[in-house]
């Protein structure tokens, strides 16, 4: 294992400040230099939200002597906040809300960055045809911007829904 995770540390993306998130990543993850030094590393992560954790992991891998760092993300880009129980930041803090995939790659300063597509995610959970836009089977609002129930309390605070296509 090239990165060892401290099982006693929780999620870092929900911490209130970047300084605390950065410190949390350093405490949560330890790189095994003997396994990564001189190698091209492909990291698989569940998501990129603000990019704080991804940038710190990339720095830790490079500091341990890796030649290249590539990211593969097992979710589509998170471009919309979740109002249904996942503590995501305001939309303007989400990398995918303000940057293209190439811009995110440059911002994270990694050699490559690829996300699974929304259709690919649906196929991965057994939906043979991908996402049924007329009748989605899962909430995917954080990826698509299509909220199953309009977040009226957030709209009252000025949140703007995705424009109808």
What do these coordinates show?
There is one protein chain. With 165 residues, the protein is an alpha/beta fold. The chain has a single domain, classed as 3-Layer(aba) Sandwich (Rossmann fold), CATH 3.40.50. Helix content is 33%, strand content 13%. The strands form 2 sheets. It has a 3-stranded parallel β-sheet with strand order 3-4-5. A two-stranded antiparallel sheet has the order 1-2. The longest helix is centred in the middle third of the chain and has 12 residues, at 52-63. The radius of gyration is 17 Å and the shape is globular.
- What share of residues are in beta strands? 5-15%
> What structural category characterises the helix and strand content?
alpha/beta
Query: What portion of residues is helical?
Result: 25-40%
The pLDDT mean sits at: 86
Reported CATH architecture: 3-Layer(aba) Sandwich
| Principal-axes shape call | globular
- Tally the helices: what do you get? 8
Assigned CATH class: Alpha Beta
What's the CATH topology label?
Rossmann fold
Low-confidence stretches: none
- Ends distance: 44 Å
Q: What's the number of structural domains?
A: 1
Radius of gyration based on Cα positions: 17 Å
Secondary-structure element string: EHEHEHEHHEHHH
Spatial order of the strands in the main sheet? 3-4-5
The counted number of beta strands is 5
